[in-house]
Amino acid sequence: MPKLTVEGVGEFEVPAGKRLVNALVDECGVDQLHACGGVGRCTTCRVEFVAGEPARMTKAERDVLTAKGLAGTPGLRLSCQIACDADMTVRATSRLAGSGRADAGGRPADAIQPPPEWT
Question: Residue ranges per domain, the chain?
Answer without folding.
Answer: 3-91
